[in-house]
């Protein structure tokens, strides 16, 4: 939806063909389960992802400060038991190294970040698209060429492939580098004043703790990062471990007793070996295509930067068509 909005704002006629839309709940539709905070996954030499993250940070702070309907909010974010200072320490607001650390935590820092209430934000984006005249189609596509059959605006000049995890199965694409990364989260009515992420000492591989308070109250608590796990089932043992970790590192969550659980959910992040794919291609029987998928766990914070790059490739493809 962010890519579509970027294209509309640049003057393109856009229609969306989607298997899932905001309000849907499905293991392969990860967006409603996301923590949706800002914390860069980029390495010190990954300059392109760093640029996407910078764009996302500025845009999300702008929404937090000026667009209440987006349900994006500023929060102090504490990163505990990390190994070193991040590349963005001179870029983000209010960065500082923490000195008063919980027992067993050797190093940590904090800064001003944002967190998104995803059900509200997704509908916010959808309403912006509809208000901009974007037509939405529901369809479960088996092949990328079938997207064009739903287009009501005449000939399709460029097909933009934002199919996420489906890119591993979608005919004409079938990217074998795409794989699921399962995450499990708890939505509670309890509130924690600060965003917290902890590389928990002694935790099993792929497990950590993150606590993200929402603007409207309540908190999302995770989590797991399990590659190649397609299972939709909730892991009850992980649930218990996550609650115990939350109680240790954010006792304020339990000020009124036990955790008041709204739901426990699982989503499959769209991972990709080699990182996100944003590139143009000509596919026989389809025509010009711009791919934009494979953001793994960085979908929300990278969305604006990735959308800008995808839109630039669309513009490039259209210029080539006129030559």
Automatic annotation (TrEMBL):
<feature type="binding site">
    <location>
        <begin position="30"/>
        <end position="31"/>
    </location>
    <ligand>
        <name>FAD</name>
    </ligand>
</feature>
<dbReference type="Pfam" id="PF01266">
    <property type="entry name" value="DAO"/>
</dbReference>
<protein>
    <recommendedName>
        <fullName>FAD dependent oxidoreductase domain-containing protein</fullName>
    </recommendedName>
</protein>
<keyword id="KW-0285">Flavoprotein</keyword>
<dbReference type="GO" id="GO:0003884">
    <property type="term" value="F:D-amino-acid oxidase activity"/>
</dbReference>
<dbReference type="InterPro" id="IPR023209">
    <property type="entry name" value="DAO"/>
</dbReference>
<feature type="domain" description="FAD dependent oxidoreductase">
    <location>
        <begin position="2"/>
        <end position="313"/>
    </location>
</feature>
<keyword id="KW-0274">FAD</keyword>
<feature type="binding site">
    <location>
        <position position="297"/>
    </location>
    <ligand>
        <name>D-dopa</name>
    </ligand>
</feature>
<dbReference type="GO" id="GO:0019478">
    <property type="term" value="P:D-amino acid catabolic process"/>
</dbReference>
<dbReference type="GO" id="GO:0005737">
    <property type="term" value="C:cytoplasm"/>
</dbReference>
<feature type="binding site">
    <location>
        <position position="269"/>
    </location>
    <ligand>
        <name>D-dopa</name>
    </ligand>
</feature>
<dbReference type="GO" id="GO:0071949">
    <property type="term" value="F:FAD binding"/>
</dbReference>
<dbReference type="InterPro" id="IPR006076">
    <property type="entry name" value="FAD-dep_OxRdtase"/>
</dbReference>
<dbReference type="InterPro" id="IPR006181">
    <property type="entry name" value="D-amino_acid_oxidase_CS"/>
</dbReference>
<keyword id="KW-0560">Oxidoreductase</keyword>
<comment type="similarity">
    <text>Belongs to the DAMOX/DASOX family.</text>
</comment>
<feature type="binding site">
    <location>
        <position position="210"/>
    </location>
    <ligand>
        <name>D-dopa</name>
    </ligand>
</feature>
């Amino acid at each position: 939806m962010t890519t579509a909005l970027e294209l509309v704002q640049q003057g393109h006629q856009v229609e969306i063909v989607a298997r899932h839309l905001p309000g849907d709940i499905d293991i392969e539709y990860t967006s409603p389960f996301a923590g949706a905070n800002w914390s860069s996954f980029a390495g010190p030499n990954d300059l392109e992802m760093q640029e996407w993250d910078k764009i996302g940070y500025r845009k999300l702070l702008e929404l937090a400060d000026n667009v209440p309907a987006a349900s994006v909010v500023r929060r102090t974010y504490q990163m505990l038991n990390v190994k070193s200072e991040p590349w963005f320490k001179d870029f983000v607001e209010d960065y500082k190294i923490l000195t008063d650390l919980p027992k067993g935590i050797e190093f940590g820092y904090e800064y001003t970040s944002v967190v998104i209430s995803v059900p509200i934000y997704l509908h916010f984006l959808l309403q912006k698209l509809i208000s901009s005249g974007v037509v939405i189609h529901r369809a479960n596509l088996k092949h990328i060429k079938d997207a064009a059959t739903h287009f009501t605006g005449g000939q399709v000049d460029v097909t933009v492939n934002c199919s996420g995890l489906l890119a591993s199965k979608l005919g004409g694409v079938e990217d074998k580098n795409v794989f699921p990364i399962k995450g499990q989260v708890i939505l509670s009515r309890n509130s924690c004043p600060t965003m917290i992420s902890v590389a928990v000492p002694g935790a099993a591989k792929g497990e950590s703790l993150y606590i993200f308070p929402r603007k409207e109250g309540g908190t999302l608590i995770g989590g797991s990062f399990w590659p190649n796990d397609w299972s939709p089932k909730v892991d009850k043992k992980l649930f218990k471990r996550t609650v115990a970790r939350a109680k240790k590192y954010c006792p304020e969550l339990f000020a009124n007793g036990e955790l008041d659980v709204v739901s426990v959910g699982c989503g499959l992040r769209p991972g990709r070996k080699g990182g996100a794919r944003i590139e143009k291609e000509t596919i026989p029987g389809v025509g010009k295509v711009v791919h934009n998928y494979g953001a793994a766990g960085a979908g929300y914070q990278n969305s604006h930067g990735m959308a800008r790059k995808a839109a630039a490739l669309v513009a490039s493809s259209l210029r080539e068509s006129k030559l």
